[in-house]
Every structure is written in structure tokens, then in C-alpha cells.
């Protein structure tokens, strides 16, 4: 007689849901890192451009100065967009982390139910074994005391 958990398919499904949540969480972390790197790169480009502009301020034509400021303004708009994108990625990471914790908790509940079911099964097995041992002891006693040959 072996233990068969009647809700094993549900437990398997919960494990798969948790694994999928882990994958989704990992992907959202990767997206967040890319957005952070993109934002840092844009900010560095803007800072470099501003420094170059300050260094060359005396020998710059008006047209070149205007072009440089337009480019800095363009970088600033991209930085704002990248910041918003990073914030969305952070919110997505938080949402995926919440889902992952929910899935993990759900899986633990089902695993605990399985453990409890197994413990009840083992208790029944021990009771059956004990009953069989008691019956063997009674038969032995009967053979030795009541019906000695």
C-alpha cells in the first residue's frame, strides 16, 4: 500500500504557476535593468554634451550653439521618457513580485496539505501494523498458554 495524494495534479499545477511567476519576475527585473541603463546612458550623454559646450563656449558659432542646445533639449526629453519608462518597469517588477509571493504562498499551502495527508496516511499504516502485531501476539499467546502442544 503506497501513498497517493488525491490532489497531486493541483499541487503540480501550483508548482508550474509558481515557476511561471518566477520567470515573469525575472523578465521584469531584466527590463528594469535595461531601462535603468538606458536612463543612465542618456544622462551621461547629456552631461558630456553640456561639459563640451561649456569648454568650447568661446569658439562656438551661434548656429552650432543653437544646434547643441537643441540636442541637449532633445536628450532631456528622452531622459524624461526613459524615467517614465523606468517607473513603469519598477511598478511591473512590484506587481510581478506580488504575484510571485502569492503563487509561492499558494504552493506552500498545498504542500502543507500534502504533508498533513501523508502524516494521516502514515498514522493509519502504523495503526494497521500495530493491530496486526497485536493479533500475532494474541495468536502466539493462545498457542503458548491455552493450546500448548
TrEMBL record:
Q: Which InterPro entries match?
A: Flag_assembly_chemotaxis_eff, Flagell_FliJ
Could you tell me what this protein is called?
Flagellar FliJ protein
**Cellular component GO terms, alphabetically?**
bacterial-type flagellum; plasma membrane
Organism equals Aneurinibacillus danicus
For this protein, the record's Pfam families field holds: FliJ
Q: What are the protein's UniProt keywords?
A: Bacterial flagellum biogenesis, Bacterial flagellum protein export, Cell membrane, Chemotaxis, Coiled coil, Membrane, Protein transport, Transport
Q: What domain of life is recorded for the organism?
A: Bacteria
> Which NCBIfam families does the protein's record reference?
flagell_FliJ
Q: How does it sit in the membrane?
A: Peripheral membrane protein
**Coiled-coil residues:** 32-92
Q: Where in the cell is it found?
A: Cell membrane
Give the family per the record: Belongs to the FliJ family.
Family annotation (Gene3D superfamilies): 1.10.287.1700
According to its UniProt entry, one GO biological process term is:
bacterial-type flagellum organization
